Amino acid sequence: MLTLTSIELNTWIAALLWPLSRILGLVAAAPLFGNAALPISVKVSLGMLLAMIIAPTVPALPATDPLSMAGLLILTQEMLVGLTMGFSIRIVFAAIEMAGEISSLTMGLGFASFFDPQTKGRSSAISQFLTMLATLMFLTVNGHLVLLAALAESFVSLPISASPIHSGGFQQLAAWGGEIFRSGVQISLPIVAALLLTNVALGILTRAAPQLNIFGIGFPVTLGVGLLVLAMVLPYLATPFQNMFLRGIETARLLPRGFAERDRPPPPPAKPLRPAPPASPVTPLTPP
């Protein structure tokens, strides 16, 4: 007859529950996995499947009751780690969305906004177009698989432990947040520069011919130039998008190490430098 003790049952529950919390945190925050169009049952089922695959490879777990206060703190801690890893990839897509917003406002398409189910807000047409393009490219380069590999690796770089996590991971995430503005401006820079020259040309034309109705021709011209430049730039967006994906996944891989910085052993003390031996006198060369 098979008998189970409470200790064995708690161990089995913790072995599945704690990795599941980190996995569900990433699934909830990461783009593509956390899309609002996916039902919650699908997300939970995916998290359970990944937890059953990753759980046997997780290092030794702390001997803590999962229903105790310490167990709940570990559960919350693992959820935060997964959320930060998924949010680091979400920052990449936010930068692309910002590039679309800047381009739309410069082209005069600020009024052409639609409801975005991902952010629960309004986004411009160019922003949604670039986001869909980035999502397809993310799938094409197998970024979702690399992200799951980084998630499995995080259980080795940051094992499940009862000790509190270090704040270095949050500092890295805050520093990575500046990528939204830097990359967003860089991606939209060709369109902004072209439209700046177009507006300067329209201003000179208005100055030369005051009777010209600038409001009647300005909007179609800026809109046409913006769409033309966007069509010319599209073939060259693959490289910056891939670089952003790689940097985002690398940041997600390094975040657990930042959280585990406290647990690292201190570096060994540096050895004192030995004084250099005195140089021997140099004898000048004499001609033969």
UniProtKB/TrEMBL annotation:
The chain crosses the membrane at residues 12-33, 40-61, 67-93, 129-152, 187-205, 212-238. Keywords: Bacterial flagellum, Cell membrane, Cell projection, Cilium, Flagellum, Membrane, Transmembrane, Transmembrane helix. InterPro entries: FliR, T3SS_IM_R. Signal peptide: none annotated. It is found in: Cell membrane; Bacterial flagellum basal body. Coiled coil: none annotated. One of its GO terms (cellular component) is plasma membrane. The keyword Mitochondrion does not apply. Belongs to the FliR/MopE/SpaR family. Role in flagellar biosynthesis. This is Flagellar biosynthetic protein FliR.
